[in-house]
Amino acid sequence: MKTKDKLLIFYSQNKIKFVSINYKIMEKVFGAIIILGSLSFLFYLVLRKKKWLLPTKPFPAEWRIILLEKVKFYNNLNDEEKKLFEYEIQEFLLNCRITGIKTSIDDTDRLLVASSAVIPIFAFPEWKYYNLTKVLVYPDRFSEEFQTEGQGRQILGMVGTGYMEGKMILSKVAIHQGFMNENDRKNTAIHEFVHLIDKMDGSTDGIPELLLEKQYVIPWIDLIQKKIAEINSDKSDINPYGGTKQVEFFAVISEYFFEHPTLLQKKHPEIYEYMVKIFGQKMTDKVSKSKSKIGRNDKCPCGSGEKFKNCCGK
């Protein structure tokens, strides 16, 4: 009997055993693939660090005007903090390309995306988004298959995985809505960047171990579970999406913290204190000023001392 015939008989009589042997082989293969993938990603991060660009040019005056008119967070910073914010905006845009998919992209779009990246990590100037190279901006909602037309378009933002590793997708409409309403406790772009921050420790699980000291991790998990139970019992004002799982709770409550910190402190003081520990910012100190509309006779924000109408507002 030929070898091929023996194999066929063995397979027909010992099917379960044959399949289990192949599963073991497959486990080893997949394990090797995962290890190689992880090593490749680590090598990629090392290269990213070496190629990281730093700003060398002055911050454009026209960009400063956009920040003053669109970003409340920026308006509540002192002059020194504003310079740091501007520097981090430039740094982010030098190292992350923002591309429109079936939509155009202008400076306002870029600055709002960059602001969403900088706001959560503003207390950590050394923070670098090494795990992000590109933000894809879609016109509006999109599907899990990244379709912008047809049914199933429910997604406003997503952090890429697998072949989309290193990329983020955001809805253009959602980006702007996040900065229009200052008190709605929602900002899709900040939500997605918080996921990216969470992911930097190697696990996207709602526990940002790079920012949260070890002694607070277990109490934080317990508090999350308590708040998720309240959400699912319809006893909370927190966005119901935060009740779906731990990782989404962290992103949702971060939106609340940066959008309406005074209300969060009032209704969920323990959560607010954990947010302060994680992000290193007392957000209730950054809510006194709203966005600024620059009048033509106001001093130009570029610092020239001239009236806006005679300088950058020409």
Shape: globular
Secondary structure: number of strands: 4
Order of helices and strands: HHHHHEHEEEHHHHHH
Largest sheet: 4 strands, mixed
Number of helices: 12
Q: What is the gyration radius calculated from CA atoms?
A: 24 Å
Describe this structure in words.
It is a single chain. The longest helix has 36 residues, at 15-50. Strands 1-2-4-3 form a 4-stranded mixed sheet. The chain has helices spanning 3-13, 15-50, 61-70, 72-75, 79-95, 107-118, 172-180, 188-199, 217-232, 246-259, 261-267, 269-279, and strands at residues 97-100, 134-138, 157-159, 167-171. It contains 12 helices and 4 strands. It is globular. The chain is mainly alpha-helical and 314 residues long. 51% of the residues lie in helices and 5% in strands.
List keywords for this structure.
314 residues, mainly alpha, four-stranded mixed β-sheet, 12 helices, 5% strand, disordered N terminus
TL;DR?
Helix content is 51%, strand content 5%. The chain is built from twelve helices and four strands.
Question: Could you outline the blueprint of secondary structure elements for this entry?
Answer:
Blueprint: H1 3-13, H2 15-50, H3 61-70, H4 72-75, H5 79-95, E1 97-100, H6 107-118, E2 134-138, E3 157-159, E4 167-171, H7 172-180, H8 188-199, H9 217-232, H10 246-259, H11 261-267, H12 269-279
Parallel strand pairs: 1-2, 2-4
Antiparallel strand pairs: 3-4
Helix pairs in contact: 3-6, 5-6, 8-10, 10-11, 11-12
